[in-house]
Amino acid sequence: MDELHALLQRQLRRAEISDVSHQWRELLRHVDRAYRDSDARAEATDRLLTVLSAEMRDRLDEVEQQIATRVDAECGRSGLVFETVPTALFMIDRGGRVVSMNPAAERLFGPAHAIVDCALDEVIVIEGADGTRGPMLTRAGLDDALRHGGLDRRDVKLCPSFGDAETTLLADVIVVPLADDADIAALVVVSDNAELARARERLEWQTTHDSRTGLTNRSLLLDRIEVALARARHADEWPAVLVLDLDRFRTVNERHGHAVGDRVLVAAAGRLERCVRGGDTVARLGPDEFAVLCDGAVDR
Length: 300
What we know:
Blueprint: H1 2-14, H2 21-84, E1 88-92, E2 98-101, H3 103-109, H4 112-115, H5 120-123, E3 125-127, E4 133-135, H6 139-147, E5 151-158, E6 169-177, E7 186-192, H7 193-208, H8 218-235, E8 237-245, H9 249-256, H10 258-275, E9 281-284, E10 289-299
Antiparallel strand pairs: 1-2, 1-7, 3-4, 5-6, 6-7, 8-10, 9-10
């Protein structure tokens, strides 16, 4: 008891309060004020937390709305790509049925209203080396492809069963699993190799021919001269090269315009081609310059 009294006296002295009765009441009021201040601070803290929570909820709602807007935009862009890409695309469900297809797939395989909801093995039919036809991918084969990360088949001969029955096309077929989608199991990509081959041929032609006249360009002419010279060393039949230009071609361009000049070039190219043999090469070297390679024309 004495120890407790001594402890209280020490605390009173620190607070500069004497130990007479009215000072005790002052101590109690001092303690009460301290508790009240503490309660006020706690209440202010609670109000601040409430305000912050409301602001956080508003901010989270704003972020969620921004994310939703971006997702919608991405979905819109994905849908636009799906509709406009020149490669045939199918979306299939986990039962192996076609859910949707793009216009490129309709051009190759037939109308969507006849194909959507059909099994994929009814749509993509292949022709074997012996001429027999069958599904490229059975239901079991599809399940196996989905389990093992997809499928990649190159240069398969497809027979679109919903379009022209006599039409076949050489194509690459890729099955891409879509694990994150609950409704769509896979994307099936069908690339028409014939169209790709035509595109490659167009590109190769453009790199070796003059776009205005359709004649061989300088690069291809030099290659053919090298081949002709190499052959001549063994056969002793040497090529002849004629180089010529069009007189006053610049005057034609200046007086009558480039459209007329282009017609003159095309006419000159046609005349030169009609004057040479089938195996000879007529090339355009410059604005008004042409060359003719006559292979095996000189017997040395």
